[in-house]
User: What shape does this take?
Amino acid sequence: MLEPLDLLHLAHERVIGVYLLDTPEGKALFDCGPATCVPALGDRLAERGLQLTDLRHLLLSHIHLDHAGAAGVLVREHPELQIHVSPVGAPHLIDPSRLEKSARRLYGDEFDRLWGELAPVPRENVHETRDRVLGLESFPTPGHASHHVCYLDGDGTLYAGDAAGVRIQPSRFVLPPTPPPEFELETWESTLDELERRDPQRLALIHFGVFDNPREHLAQLRERLRSWTATVGRGVTAAEFEQGAIAELGDDARVYEQAMPLWQSYAGLRRYWDTAAPDRVG
Assistant: This one.
């Protein structure tokens, strides 16, 4: 049964999970989490009778640190590991200096505790995604991030990264992760159209779990993307936004805050409006 490998980020369950796949070219991992989770990844693999060196490939949805931060450390430990990432994301794996500088501005003194080392990946280990990767359909899914890609396998499982939002098992609440700097409502809605057109049978989410009701799930994500974007467009403060979101989340608020801090969601939504085209109306 498909289930996430829980990386126990900062010792919390159900924050970051990654997926083990069997492909025609060997075992692969979908996303890898940050470097701070490498020991936990080793533990999860060992529970399945595997070592890091049993993996042949790493499929990345995008290069945000909670999804891809450990890639360089993993390749250093396992030089045969092949990394698949979007053409836009690839240069930032090879030279992560700009990515790290930007992330350190956002997280400040918390960067090292949250994410750990951001090591470069040798150019020869990096492969740009095309229409098919390791027998899976691969396609762009921007909106959360301009370089985001998803992978769809033959049995209808969509390895969704963040393109299908955050939903912490067993909750039914679908949260839009909208951190700065690349959130774009209209682009993300086009991505949701594309996901619905492909009609997946289940969604494998990094944050967190596998869900068998994609249409209902994606409809809820679309509705909340619109409502949260409009709320911030009307000029609410960060405190007001967080208070409203916590009220919506109810008893699930704490675990969602671990996976997608609400201050980041607000910051991305606020930036969307602050950099808006003149005809965009809140």
